[in-house]
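User: structure tokens for AP complex subunit sigma, please.
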Amino acid sequence: MLSGSMLLHMFQIHFVLLISRQGKVRLTKWYSPYTQKERNKVVRELSGLILTRGPKLCNFVEWRGFKVVYKRYASLYFCMCINQDDNELEILEIIHHFVEILDRYFGSVCELDLIFNFHKAYYILDELLIAGELQESSKKTVARLIAAQDSLVEAAKEQASSISNMIAQATK
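Assistant: Done. Predicted tokens:
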């Protein structure tokens, strides 16, 4: 007999898209194989489909035998593509979880944060999802891992700066 926790349904996210209201792609992460040509076509199709939907319509659409779950936060649409039989509400929760972590990190995240710090957004997403599956559900754990990564980056910058200073002093 399986316990309740062992009956968790695993889902497969095929890709993540963040699209602005103007149709500009702000982040993409592909967990299933798509050629660059197919990726461009997917982005065009989904941008056209999602951006034209009314705000009162539900947050998921059937598309090419899959379901695309999306949620608009400010000027950005967060979209995830899943299998037809996967639970849309789980994915809406994951989207919201991602946004909450971005908010916590950037202090009320906005589109410009993602444009100028896209590497941070990718790092946060990679802490959250691996191979299209939820890796970490704890916001505190993700925040701690991101803070540790930031500390490593700062230490590396300081070390590079001190090495540059030593080289500059030695070559005077």
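User: Anything notable?

Assistant: The radius of gyration is 19 Å.
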